[in-house]
Amino acid sequence: MLRALPLTALLLAGSALSAPAAAAPVAPASAVVSAETAPVLTTPQEWRRMAEAGSAYPLFAVERERVEALVRAAMAQGVNVPTPRDPGGGYTHEQHKRNYQAIYNAGALYRLTGDKAYADFARDLLLEYAELYPTLGKHPAGRGEIPGRLFWQTLNDSVWLVYSIQGYDAIRETLTAEERRRIDDDVFRRMAGFLSHETPNNFERIHNHATWAVAAVGMTGYVLRDRDLSDKALTGLKKDGSAGFLTQVDQLFSPDGYYEEGPYYQRYALAPFIIFAGAIDRNEPGRGIFQRRDGVLLKAVDTLIQSSYGGYFIPINDAILDKGLDTEELVTGVASVYARTQDAGLLSIAQRQGRTILSPEGLKVAEAAASGAARPYAFRSVLLSDGPDGTRGALAIIRARGEDGQALVQKATAMGMGHGHFDKLNWLFYDNGQTVVTDYGAARFLNIEAKAGGIYLPENTSWAKATVAHNTLVVNERDQFGGHWQTGENHAPQVLFFDKAEGTQIVSARQAGAYEGVTFTRTQALVEHPELERPVVIDLLRISGERPARYDLPLHYNGHIMKLGFEAERAVAERPVLGASDGYQHLWVDAVSKPSQDSRSLTWLLDGRFYTWRFASSVPAQAILAESGANDPDFNLRREPALILRADGQKDATFVGVLEPHGRYDGRAETVVGADSAIRDLRSVRGADAEVVVVTLASGKTVVLGVADDPSPRAAHVVTANGRTWRWTGPWARLDQ
């Protein structure tokens, strides 16, 4: 269904679009002034204010210019509403995405310029959908139990409706009664019905797919003045609060605003939460949606920003690595929260994004940014609780030396539903603006047809979710929870303590139930010392098992090996594969050491800085150098290195490590400084109920960290070894000598 716009419409559009940005447009006059057709998602008064003032503020004016260019290009191509046939990334999929963006943006431009050519273009698109949509059944490339109609999955249909209903709200009063009837009934009512009572298993889930669906249906209810639709979106199909948007707000976020599926999906789910909450606030202010649960939706935006480093979200669970603070969803979130909190730190994020949205909230951001009100955003050390009551573990983020300094992340969160990975007590480390200790994220090339049509690849299950693909304990070469995420939902980690003192920031968590008869506790600290160039990470993993087992502890690192601080047999002629399943089938073996308890090291170079990982164990352990990419015939996996510490036939074991950033390599000047580690030795000493980690520096001085099994603040502990005794009270202590 492709047809060109009339020449007069294009000329009108070109005339309006070429107008100087500084010229104040005239607010549009309504074709029919009626309470039944006036905009309700953004009020006429709000549109008028944006039309009159927006061009005076650079962020708003630049965004309007950007949107004008997009809509002008769409209008030049004409109305194109194809019959759906392609999966994600295919032609029809992408065209329907472009169409909802055009409808959404054209509605805004009509309100901001008064140029009816924009309204007519959105109308013409929607009238074509009124012809097409009633003829559609299941999408021919549909996936999952609930395929979409316009798109291959219902989720995308929901996204289409969230944005198109906003554009329609802006132009609805310009239409004739017959045009409104056709579009109301044959597009929006039909879509809302499909996404709600026709697909209840999706609509009533507690999941991001359902969030998009209820937001779409709820806003449609407001625009069509259909209270039944909006009530079902808010409280479920039975209108009893057992499902719906309010229940999702209550169950999907922790009290700290952490979203159950992790930062990547928090980013994605943020849009419908924030957009629909804004619609609720305008249409039913008495619900106090932004005050619900102590302002949890406002907290969610701060939490998402905190869950980033170097502008990119921390990639835990099914995360794609290139998503960051400049995403559309967070642009919307920053504007919405700033408008309600006037947090000046959010303005610096908006300036980094370089844009805002064409909304009343976006105008407030643009006004404040133009006035010089922005302040640096306060990236800080935080413990973000997980679960609706905050008791299902947490994500710990420990920072030092500013936004691009050091950041230690310990993942002690709950499972994260089907997008969760089998990686309890995993960790990442950032330094110098780089990811040093890495997480693979998701095995997916989003919307790239050449890679399985853009969906999750088979290797997402066989590698990316596998425990060995993460920096945490693997028992007997098997995934945690037997590879069943539903089992993992029942076994969240327990955070023992999160604390900070001068020179030390520390977190500790314990996991039971990931493996039968095995409990493991991980304590990690970001530690400073006058003789250390930068803070170092101390990592202590204590394992208690009921029977002998094989314990593997991988470290996935980013950089080029400079020095191997242990003897190992190299696989030079051919590379064996490490194992047969649970991710091991994807690891090539490059070198293997003999078992030892001694302190050993590996040094690598990344972006001009050296990193030395020094490690030891309470039992004999092999060091295995490996690389991902084995058994990958379609070349779907990235080739990334790993060091695996392996202890065989043990019930109890302790692994200890220290990661030290040091030195500098300048390729331009051909200079090297500090390439050698400042740490000479590492060992751990076990007492009756506690452990002491001793890091010996090159000078002979020591950094000593005491960690108790019992996190009680009043318990006293004594550890004695080699004629030396350490005493302290509480869960941890610095005991340097």
UniProtKB/TrEMBL annotation:
Residues 1-23 form the signal peptide. Keywords: Lyase, Periplasm, Signal. Residues 388-651 form the Heparinase II/III-like C-terminal domain. InterPro entries: Alg17C_C, Alginate_lyase_dom, Chondroitin_lyas, Hepar_II_III_C. It is found in: Periplasm. It holds the Pfam family Alginate_lyase. This is Alginate lyase. GO terms for cellular component: periplasmic space. Residues 84-307 form the Alginate lyase domain. It comes from Brevundimonas naejangsanensis. PANTHER family: HEPARIN-SULFATE LYASE. Residues 698-730 form the Exo-oligoalginate lyase C-terminal domain. Its main location: periplasm. One of its GO terms (molecular function) is lyase activity. The keyword Hydrolase does not apply.
